[in-house]
């Protein structure tokens, strides 16, 4: 079985790529709102993937014949990858904020 995640199918990267690429030209405030909304959307997608994986895991543990172990493991891996990507983005944002705040004026 060959499973490949494209950037557009990833819960985190797909949510961040589209709005940022098509942001309106204008003030920095509008761009900042686009980034914030994109990040919120990405967090919702990651949370939804984690909840789905948890639900599938519970159903497998309870012996539900409609849920396969492979499907559950795949959902768990997708949720983990999405969470790790989100964590990296958050760390980069915190580092950028720290760098900006430490700049001398």
Structure keywords:
105 residues; mainly alpha; disordered N terminus
Sheet/helix structural class: mainly alpha
Distance between the termini: 55 Å
Low-confidence stretches: 1-23
Characterize the biggest β-sheet.
none
Number of strands: 0
Assembly category: single chain
Percent of residues in β-strands = under 5%
Radius of gyration over all CA atoms, rounded: 18 Å
Measured as a percent range, the helix fraction is over 70%
Tally the helices: what do you get? Answer: 3
Q: Output the helix-strand order.
A: HHH
Please state the average pLDDT score: 79
Number of domains: 1
What form results from the Cα inertia axes? elongated
Please give a structural write-up:
The protein has 105 residues and is an all-alpha fold. The protein has one domain (13-101). It has helices spanning 13-21, 28-61, 69-101. Helix 1 runs antiparallel to helix 2 (28-61) and helix 2 (28-61) runs antiparallel to helix 3. The longest helix is centred in the middle third of the chain and has 34 residues, at 28-61. Residues 1-23 have low confidence and may be disordered.
